[in-house]
């Protein structure tokens, strides 16, 4: 951590979190429980600079369920309890997803009715446990394919589109005070996929499904969605009566097409999105990691191309990057 950051942390000098708190804005980070436990700079930076947390992996079905009859909440509790203890806004991610299912989970072991009961039990168990601690849930993650069709996941194949209705209903039964969100990537601006998500949410609302909001992940790795189109996209979901949050933001560049002065370009883009959110009444931006050394981007193997791997507000040694100052400036002015 840089000396000026340390001095800010050790004193009561205003920090990035101060700026967010004073603006009534949720500025968050995705959290790794091991870094939280083992690296004081990590949790000091998290606590002093952010007022919102999301467990990056610990609340997903696979990490939670080491065997068919056991749940292990150790890592999820570490992140959620850190957020609660430090008066932070806590986002739960995610109750229903087609990725990171348990290693022992094989769909063919279950009938459709058994999958329905499996999913109900999972949602009731997990969302029920955190009833008093998690403010907002990503109930269903990435149910729409990149071409705008419904993604053919184990849940969709077994239950059809109604799996979303059921998931939100079951979550609302055990976490009545939490805001319940649909979350997805590649749908930040107005495009074929966000059109399809808009239509899906319209259908859910028409069916009386208790959905409160839409999470736009905003993984701006190669493409940086145009802020004006992001604004228009946010506003059309708001016009449906839904809240909108930016849930997983990071900003990077194609490794073979890095602009001159990338840190300044990155800072300008973070600033433009925070300013856009402030303008249209989106009150939450979560960055997908505390600092560059803990970003998923460097380790992810399934990218179609290579991206630069310093996508966050803090550098590998927790140094405040231009993006940090740009976000703080946007919140303070
Ligand atoms: O915990 C195991 C460890 O025991 C093992 O030794 C190691 C090597 O196999 O793997 C570790 O699990 C990894 C896990 O991250 C925790 O680090 C998984 O392999 C790896 O696939 C997993 O990647 C996560 C990815 O979701 C999975 O699709 C990333 O950390 C996480 O940032 C990323 O987050 C997703 C959001 O949930 C949804 N939106 C997209 C976003 C980026 O893909």
Please give a structural write-up:
The protein is of the alpha/beta class. It is 43% helix and 15% strand. An eight-stranded parallel barrel has the order 1-2-3-4-5-6-8-9, surrounded by six helices. Helix 10 links the parallel strand 5 (179-184) and strand 6 (213-216). The longest helix has 19 residues, at 262-280. The two termini are 25 Å apart. The structure holds ligand G3I. Ligand G3I binds next to loops.
Order of helices and strands: HHEHHEHHEHEHHEHEEHEHEH
Shape: globular
Helix content: 40-55%
Instruction: Strand order, main sheet: write it out.
Output: 1-2-3-4-5-6-8-9
How widely separated are the two ends? 25 Å
CATH architecture descriptor: Alpha-Beta Barrel
Rounded average pLDDT: 96
Going by CATH, the homologous superfamily would be Glycosidases
| Rg, alpha carbons | 19 Å
Small molecules held by this entry: ligand G3I
Tally of alpha and pi helices: 13
> Which band does the percent of strand residues land in?
5-15%
The CATH topology corresponds to TIM Barrel
Largest sheet: 8 strands, parallel, barrel
- Write down the oligomeric state: single chain
Main attributes?
9 strands, 8-stranded parallel β-barrel, TIM Barrel, alpha/beta, 333 residues, 13 helices, binds ligand G3I
């Amino acid at each position: 951590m840089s000396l000026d950051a340390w001095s800010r942390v050790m004193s009561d000098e205003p920090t990035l979190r101060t700026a967010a708190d004073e603006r009534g804005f949720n500025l968050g980070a995705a959290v790794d429980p091991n870094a939280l436990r083992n690296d004081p700079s990590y949790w000091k930076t998290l606590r002093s600079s952010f007022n919102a947390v999301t467990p990056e992996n610990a609340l997903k079905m696979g990490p939670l369920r080491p065997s068919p009859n056991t749940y292990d909440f150790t890592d999820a509790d570490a992140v959620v309890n850190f957020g609660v203890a430090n008066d932070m806004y806590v986002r739960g991610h995610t109750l229903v997803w087609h990725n990171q299912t348990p290693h022992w989970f094989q769909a063919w072991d279950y009938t459709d009715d058994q999958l329905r009961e499996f999913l109900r039990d999972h949602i009731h168990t997990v969302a029920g446990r955190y009833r008093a601690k998690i403010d907002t849930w990503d109930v269903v993650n990435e149910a729409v394919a990149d071409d705008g069709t419904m993604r053919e996941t184990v849940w969709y194949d077994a239950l059809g589109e109604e799996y979303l209705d059921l998931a939100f209903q079951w979550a609302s039964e055990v976490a009545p005070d939490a805001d319940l969100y649909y979350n997805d990537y590649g749908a930040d601006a107005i495009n074929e996929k966000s059109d399809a998500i808009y239509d899906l949410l319209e259908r859910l609302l028409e069916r009386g499904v208790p959905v409160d909001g839409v999470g736009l992940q905003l993984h701006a790795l190669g493409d940086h969605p145009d802020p004006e189109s992001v604004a228009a996209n946010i506003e059309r979901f708001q016009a449906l009566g839904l809240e909108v949050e930016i849930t997983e933001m990071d900003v990077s560049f194609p490794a073979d097409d890095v602009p001159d002065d990338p840190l300044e370009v990155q800072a300008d883009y973070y600033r433009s999105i925070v300013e856009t959110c402030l303008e249209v009444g989106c009150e939450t931006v979560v960055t997908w990691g505390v600092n560059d050394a803990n970003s998923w981007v460097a380790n992810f193997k399934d990218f179609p191309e290579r991206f630069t791997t310093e996508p966050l507000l803090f550098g590998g040694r927790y140094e405040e990057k231009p993006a940090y100052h740009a976000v703080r400036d946007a919140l303070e002015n």
